[in-house]
Amino acid sequence: MWKDRLKEVIYILENSNINEIEVRFWFRKIKVTKAPPIINADPDTLSKKTTIKEKEPSIKVKEKEDTQAIANLFTVRSPMPGTFYAASEPGTKPFVNVGSKINEGDVICIIEAMKIMNEIQSEKNGTIKEILIKDGNPIEFDQPLFVIDCSE
C-alpha cells in the first residue's frame, strides 16, 4: 500500500513545477526531490571565497573550539505537539530558568495535548543554557524547547 502512495507522490512531482515534496504517512516520512537546488553565484563572490580558503588554518582552530563547546550542548525537543507551559499553574514559579542546574528525570516543563498535561523530564544532567519557547505558546512535534549545557 505504501508503494502505491510513493508512486502517487512521484507522479505528482513529475507533473508539476514543484522541485521537492515531503509527505508523512503515520510514522514514515518520504522526501522526494526532482533536482538539486540551483545556486546562483556572482563571479565576485566566488573570488572572495578563494581568499577565505587561503586563511583556513586560523579558521580551523576556532572551529575545533566551537565544536567542543557544541558537543557539550544537548537540545531538549518536544515529543508531541501541544501547548508549552513553564510552570505547573499560572502565576507560580517556573520549573526551570536560564542557569538552573537540573538532573536526569527532573520535570522541566509541561506540554498540554488534547487536555492532558504531560510532564516533560530532563534526559541529561546539566545547566539550562537557553529556553527557546515562551510560556503558553503552541509547539510542534520535535521542536527545540531547551538547550542544556552538559559539560559539568
Automatic annotation (TrEMBL):
Record-level Gene Ontology MF annotations: acetyl-CoA carboxylase activity
CC annotations in GO: acetyl-CoA carboxylase complex
**Biological process per Gene Ontology, one example term:** fatty acid biosynthetic process
Q: Which PROSITE patterns match?
A: BIOTINYL_LIPOYL
One Pfam family name is: Biotin_lipoyl
Domain Lipoyl-binding, which positions? Answer: 73-149
Keywords, A to Z?
Biotin
Any coiled-coil regions, as ranges: none
Q: What is this protein called?
A: Biotin carboxyl carrier protein of acetyl-CoA carboxylase
Query: Origin organism of this chain?
Result: marine metagenome
The taxonomy runs: unclassified sequences, metagenomes, ecological metagenomes
